[in-house]
Amino acid sequence: ITINVTTRDGDRQQIDGQEGSALMEMLRDAGLGVDGTCGGMCSCGSCHVYIASETTLPKPSEDEADMLEGMGSIVEVRPSSRLSCQIILKPELDGLEVEIAPQF
Ligand code: FES
């Protein structure tokens, strides 16, 4: 599952994701500045990304939506904002375009 990533420096990179793992883990393991401090518990905001493609993702859970809303006073939260720890890679996400949001 190929993910196209725009880093905080504006570099474009392609990373290979494994089905069933969280997008955050892929971004973190690729050394792209996503810390995943809370380990995917939806509580740190360090895995914030903007989804740049039209791909339809499952809607954010209430926890994720609350977290994003709370982050809005500190970083730019867009309609396309997601916490990448909540996005589990599936074959239909092949080619997903994500932009890593500013450090939170
Ligand atoms: Fe902490 Fe996603 S890794 S909110």
Automatic annotation (TrEMBL):
Which species expresses this protein natively? Edaphosphingomonas haloaromaticamans
Q: Which UniProt keywords apply?
A: 2Fe-2S, Iron, Iron-sulfur, Metal-binding
Its recorded name reads Putidaredoxin
Query: Cofactors per UniProt?
Result: [2Fe-2S] cluster
Which residue ranges does the record assign to the 2Fe-2S ferredoxin-type domain? Answer: 1-104
What family is it from? Belongs to the adrenodoxin/putidaredoxin family.
Q: Name one Pfam family in it.
A: Fer2
- Transmembrane spans: none
Which Gene Ontology BP annotations are present? Answer: P450-containing electron transport chain
Recorded hits in InterPro entries, A to Z, give: 2Fe-2S_ferredoxin-like_sf, 2Fe-2S_ferredoxin-type, Adrenodoxin-like, Beta-grasp_dom_sf
UniProt GO molecular function: 2 iron, 2 sulfur cluster binding; electron transfer activity; metal ion binding
